[in-house]
Amino acid sequence: MPLIRLDNLSLAYGHHALLDHVSLELSRGERVCLVGRNGAGKSSLLRIISGERGADDGEIWRQAGIRVAALAQEVALESDDSVFDVVAAGIPEQGRLIAEYHHAAAALAQSQDPAALERLATLQQALEAAGGWQLEQRVETVLSRLQLEGDVRFATLSGGWRRRVLLAQALAGDPDVLLLDEPTNHLDIEAIRWLEDFMMNFAGALLFISHDRAFVRRLAGRILELDRGALTSWPGGYDDYLRRKAEQLETEARHHALFDKKLSQEEAWIRQGIKARRTRNEGRVRALQRMRDERNLRRERAGRADIRLDQGEQSGRLVFEAEDISVCFGNRCVIREFSTTMLRGDRVGIIGPNGSGKTTLIRALLGRIDIDSGRVRRGTRLQTAWFDQQREQLDPHKSVMDNVADGSQRVTVSGRDRHVAGYLRDFLFPPERLQSPVSSLSGGERNRLLLARLFARPANLLVMDEPTNDLDVETLELLEELLMGFSGTLLLVSHDREFLDNVVTSTLVFEGDGRIGEYVGGYSDWLRQQQPVAQAAGKRPAAKPAISRDKSAGKSNKLSYKDQRELDALPGQIESLETEQADLQQAVSDPGFYQQAQETVKIALARLEAVNGELETCYERWEALEAQKN
């Protein structure tokens, strides 16, 4: 029995039908990916399913009592609550109770107020009655895995981090139906892999939109395609869909060619004059009219973007040479004694957790920030174009046209003068969109506009910071082709594993404590080079590069006797702390715990807090020593 069923749903903007009498069923356990071009109506369909908006026509049936959670493509929530409160709000009934318990526990840890202790006891009893302990742990787990700090105010976060919080909110509620619109945007690779594992074990129905082909291949068991208002279901995985879709398009093209040839012949016949309108030919005339009507109803596929790049003059052979550079902020070094040489034509991928220093490295190489030590030598005749993931180079109040041509009607691309309307048509912007303000564009349209702005200027050094967010797969593949044929130098920050594999020739990986490893090949090549070390260590630490230009590579990373003794002792210490943590959590959960003397309760809660901190310290120290050893 389906959880949700759509029957003959229709939705149009003006005369443009996004949904043309579409039908759909979603059942428990399904993992379905919704694909289609930017602007096809995918996000609108998800909003209809979630109940956020209605359709123009058709029926929606939902199984009684089902819980539906959704992550939108754009962040709309404004809240002064803490991150913990926002995430807990994803649990409809117990969310507020969990948040209150969290705040009461934090207050008790900082005061000796008997009223605070009594308040905590009351909330604990309420949580036990509502079965909320497991849900509270679920909130904590999701916060940890998505690297979110629960006590931070939501309003202080950037757009990317707010989106991550709303993803956590959707995951925390354990819904029956989960709707995710581009869930991997602004997540680093480790967080994406965790999300994949989480979704593989999700028991409800999952419907998601994603441009991340590796993510889609891992999760999708069925593909839904929204194309020219029609919704088509393709059983099987993403590769099966690609193969069968190509066959369908080929068949459709042949059918249209035969139809158009027949129509052309009939139009030629009708133009012969009076004999075509004789009574005995009225049936043929009516058939021609039906063919004309059918041709008028045909919706052609949207055009293919024609992305080109003005490659400018050739730079010098040397692009960057860095020697033992370090960049620190206070006591934290995000780049530590890093050395590399980049030559003309190198395509370098940069991988690392959010906040690890990827953009800082680019700014240091370009000379846009000061380094604390070391030296950077830059090549000659560099013409730099920077794709900024925050799209700060776009003025949201200006029109699409003015953002590219700065008020002019003409642009010069590769030495050729062009009207801006024709140039923007190559990036799939129709004439009616040219005067629209950037603020009205979708995420994918803004990315295409930023590409159009950048590629209208000559460049032999491309810096691209998360360029794939919100792009449809077809445009993404065109961008891949362009970058693979680019004769200049590319620095690419991306979490898109397949994009990295297809484009880059070497990879820089932030491996913790400011250390950066250099590897030949893309993401999969880096992963393969990790495996021997990971198997030996029983975990996934950072591996030594196969071929490295880092001058520190020649130095010994062997642990001192003292550090090795500490590393050997850590597993046993962690096991002991985890056992104590489990015992304390079980004691605190006992209904009679707060009936004891207040001093006994305080000591137990303080010890639980201390054990949690000691465990975190041990984990961090273990990872640091393992990384140093390797």
**Total number of beta strands:** 20
CATH superfamily of one domain: P-loop containing nucleotide triphosphate hydrolases
Number of contiguous helices: 19
Main pleated sheet = 6 strands, mixed
How far the N terminus sits from the C terminus, by CA atoms, comes to: 53 Å
- Counting helices, strands and paired strands, the structural category is alpha/beta
- Uncertain residue ranges: 533-556
Strands of the largest sheet, in order across it? 5-6-7-3-8-9
Quickly name the level 1 CATH class of one domain: Alpha Beta
Strand content: 15-25%
Helix amount, in percent? 40-55%
Here the CATH topology of one domain equals Rossmann fold
CATH architectural grouping of one domain: 3-Layer(aba) Sandwich
Oligomer: single chain
